Amino acid sequence: MAKSDSTVYLKMLNDNQNCDSEHERFLLLSSAYLAPVSYFQLMVGNDSAVKIEKYEYYQKQSYRNRCRIATANRVMDLTIPVEKSDKQLIRDVRISSHGDWQTQHWRTIEAAYNSSPFFEYYSDDLRPFFEKKWVFLWEFNQIIQEKILDLIDGGINICTTDCYIEKYNKNVTDLRNKIHPKKDSPIRLMSYYQVFEQKNGFIPDLSIIDLLFNMGNESQLILNERPEFV
After folding, report:
1. Would strands 172-174 and 26-29 be described as parallel, antiparallel, or unpaired?
2. What does the alpha-carbon distance between residue 105 and residue 94 come to, in Å, rounded to a whole number?
3. Per the count of CB atoms within 10 A, which of 57, 91, 189, 223 is most buried?
4. Quick one: which of 136, 129, 3 has its CA closest to 58?
5. Those residues with Cβ within 8 angstroms of residue 227's Cβ, 6 or more apart along the chain or in another chain
6. pTM attached to this predicted model
7. How large is the angle between the packed helices 101-113 and 119-126, nearest 10 degrees?
């Protein structure tokens, strides 16, 4: 994706956002790197607007810079290295220029999913994100999320917050810190075919790419389920 494309997309997000008014109803999520299935099911199955938090402080050890996939032997976290991020807004966090995390991540994804039914079908759409150099974590997360939503025909109208509000009223479903690697999913999840299921058993709430590579267009059957909170 060209640099100008990413700039236009982020400008679109900013131009389309509304003030977080007292009576506005929406689902609020954090920024995330190839977020888990529950994150996208909440988006797709939600009947209100969706907003991504842009003005919170960056949080370590969260899905903001990591995703989880299933390899032949175990669940693996893929983490985007970031520069010193203490007391930085998520929108300002820079991706570390040290190391070649993109090549490492793509090689790991390819090794884990090259035998899955739909890896070849989607790999050309996703590989370019691991070839271009990115500066800001926020930008990378938002643009790869846009691509995922396009691949699953999400048709979701997403905007971003205007400012940070710690506690919202009951009109807002605030899940900024509910979808987290160290917490159980906030919604009930359906099982689906996984390439290593016979060996490892079904592993819930992996990255959306696990669902996409294993189920292809049928991913929509999972994502279109109305979320049932637990």
Report:
1. parallel
2. 18
3. 223
4. 136
5. 38, 41, 42, 45, 46, 187, 188
6. 0.89
7. 170
